[in-house]
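Hey, can you fold this?
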Amino acid sequence: MTSGQLLTFGGVVVLGAMSPGPDFAVVLRRSALAGRAHGMAAAVGVTAGVFAWVIAAATGVAALVAATPVAFTVIKLVGAGYLAYLGVNALRSAGRSGDLRSQPDPAGVETGLWGAFRDGLLCNALNPKAAIFFVALLPQFLPAGSGLVPLLTLSVIAVVITATWFLTVANLVAAARRVFFRPATRRLIDGMSGVVLIGLGVRLAFTTR
């Protein structure tokens, strides 16, 4: 692979990472309502999901998922259900009143680092559109029989770009977290993220191959 190919691949991954979606919504909400560490844990979870899909695409597993109606439908519906679950939790949290600092669980879900990592990982790993993205992208940069080194190179690029973007989002949002201590702001963030997550879940449920 040439440097031009690597730069092009990186540019496409950047655009994919920055596109608004469930990954962004989860990292944003965790960072705003639970703090920097939880936002970063969610970002690492998203990155782990991206790495898994890159490997799956390179080994043909993602192509099988995208091409198999049953597998695609199962992953799609489970992913949509999980997004809806997160969205409902956010809306329930929005309905609660009081100061954010007085609540033991301000994010409306368990705020442990593992919970944040899990949300990021599952949001990405249960999104078959991620599989389609990398199935369409990788073959253009990874010819058949190209060996392990090119695969690892593209995997590292995808992981580094994804991690950099979402860790940046987590830190920027967490830096302004004191704004989110205000009950009205918390309810707004919870309500908006809940609606967005449920909407994304419904959209995912009706996604076709």
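Oh, and this one too while you're at it.
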Amino acid sequence: MQEKDRFKQAEKAIIIGIVGNIILAVIKWVIGVQSNSRALVADAVHSASDVAGSLAVFIGVRAAKRPPDEDHPYGHGKAESIAAIIVAVLLALVGFEIGKSSFEAFFQPIDVPKSMAIYAVLFSIVIKEIMFRYKYNLGKKIKSDALIINAYDDRSDVFASLATLVGIVGALIGGYLGIDWLVYADPVAGIVVAILILKMAWEFGTEAIHNTLDHVLHDEDTTELRELVMSVPDVKKITELHAREHGHYVIVDLKISVDPYMTVEEGHKVGKRVKAKLMENAHVQNVFIHINPYSDDE
């Protein structure tokens, strides 16, 4: 897939997500207020935060597609990982605020939510699951950390809405049967939603930070690259190979050994053939090669 098509698809997915989250946030907020459901209002706030998160991802994807320049010779691919970190932080803040609001509800009178809240939750679950599958599959296809974490943000909404649904149904049953304590199932659901959001923020935030700190592919993930290098005639040995992840692409730092009696020009030509071979891999954007003389001791 060409870079232009990759970013075009990513931007389209993010825009769809932004529009979808705005619609869902408005629907859940209005119905949550009208039906007196704290859990649904909390879920609406979560959807609203997704809009901010999607905007951060959109900016990150736009920055990542910029070509290398003098200040950024390795490209701007890490902008996507930085956007993913921003989304994780936003998720954590929202999770904390929802948990705080739901906890405070236990210390004040609370009314039974209205049944109309159930329909809003069911609608949200269906839409969010569709959005998750669309973004996740596309993120895997184009290797976009930011889009994948944005997809899991949508999946967190599905879990959050399920918890909200349980809380609302529990509160309605409590009101119908006259079981006062069961009415508090609604704010309990809000706390469950908060915990799920915080857990997801931690998991994907740490993963995004890991990818930002010059993470290199493990040996088992570089097998194809090594095979490509060794398929080039005159390469005696791979002394060192580091494939650094920069968002959706990889930068390869390579040391190879060649016949010590080759001329400098011949060794240079071997290096160029190796680079051309590695660049056949769709995820490799650049290769830096050091040529060493091969010895029997190696």
